[in-house]
Model the fold of this input.
Amino acid sequence: MIRKTPPILLCAFLLASQAAAGSRLLNYENRVVRAAEQIERIKADREYGDEGIVYIKRLLPKSEQIEFDGREVSVDNRWLHEMLDAYASEKDPQQRIAKLNELSGRLRSLDDHLRRAETAGSLDSSDAGEKIREILSRPAYQPEPETPIGAFLKKVMRKIRGFLGEVYTALTRLLERLLGAGAGSGWIGKLLLGLVLLLGVVAVVRLGRKIRRPQSKRKKSRVVLGEEVAVDSTSRDLAEAGFAAARAGDFRTAVRKLYVSLLYELAERGLIELEDSATNHEYLRKAARFGGVAAPMGYLTERFDYVWYGMSPSSEDDFADYVARYLEAMESVRLVNQ
Done:
């Protein structure tokens, strides 16, 4: 029986059984790299977007079988297709770039997992079972679960369709009573029904406009590594938000906030410029020319990849180490300007 498995599970199977999967896993890893390259091309050439999305979906179909160790695993790439569809339907330019950066980060993280698995040694059978359970608990390469809002909207749409069906049936019966049997199925009856439904829709739209409350203007914001931040936010504001997330036990968000806080500190001191399209590794390359900043920021960038894009678990102790390197990086940034 073929089992449905997230791509990252291949790493655990390879760790437990290193031999037979080599070339097949390498082929999959190469296609992941090519997909990441296509994301970068889409970022550079907007007109290539539609073609690039089609190509990526061909590179990594929604489901594919990979054989190793005498077994077949059906790899689930639906998460990638759903993110590509979300990008294609997004209208806001900043959010489109943020989605591309998120896609690039996840593909890069997946490639890193695969490369490490290819070079790692075998695990003891007891450790392998625990490793598989730990990896399976990560949501990184699984389709996004339906949100409560999404489920609510689907429910509303089903009710609207049901209501319109009932209205159509009632109007058809009314026409048949007024004009005789079969009137509702004739072209005149269908035209009248269509006009009535159209007038109803127009009336509902107009009513909605009248009762719509005036909305306050949205505060201007910018997107940094997918994080929507108010333009008047400071490095300190972001750091405080990060520590608040950590106190609530959300270390993943805390890591993200502190990383963006460091980027804001670099920008506030004129060392880098924040760009909607820049990735964390591009920021690292820009900051690397400031000697003391490179080492701690390199660590923070790697952990950001691991925790945010790889959706790997993070503990309080992990976050404590992260904070120590964050403070080291912030101090190094301040020394650059002295």
Remarks:
- The mean pLDDT is 75.
- The longest helix spans residues 148-179.
